[in-house]
Design a protein that fits this description.
alpha+beta
């Protein structure tokens, strides 16, 4: 079986911006994603969306090209304004055409 290297982008952000984030990552080339509820504590301790409540975790497996586009949009439109953090992991996938 042939494995292909891809990037796993994980975004943890305020639940209030979920639909906007998803719209952007799809527009920028992500073919799919997983969203789950998240909770924890970060350096900001409080998010602007406390009234709407909760955090979400979005994960998407993408190519390097799509990763760069998404990171640029996150840096410009999300990081300065919202409690939002991101990390990238190297993964190997089966059925590469899905990503």
């Amino acid at each position: 079986m042939i494995l292909k290297q891809r990037k796993l982008l994980t975004i943890v952000a305020e639940a209030a911006i979920e639909h906007r984030l998803i719209k952007d990552i799809e527009r920028l080339g992500a073919k799919g994603f997983t969203v789950s509820a998240a909770h924890g504590k970060g350096p900001r301790n409080q998010r602007t969306g406390d009234l709407e409540g909760g955090n979400i975790r979005i994960e998407t497996v993408i190519s390097n090209e799509v990763l760069e586009k998404i990171l640029e949009v996150l840096a410009q439109n999300y990081f300065p304004h919202y409690a939002c953090t991101t990390w990238v992991s190297q993964v190997e996938v089966v059925r590469d055409e899905r990503y």
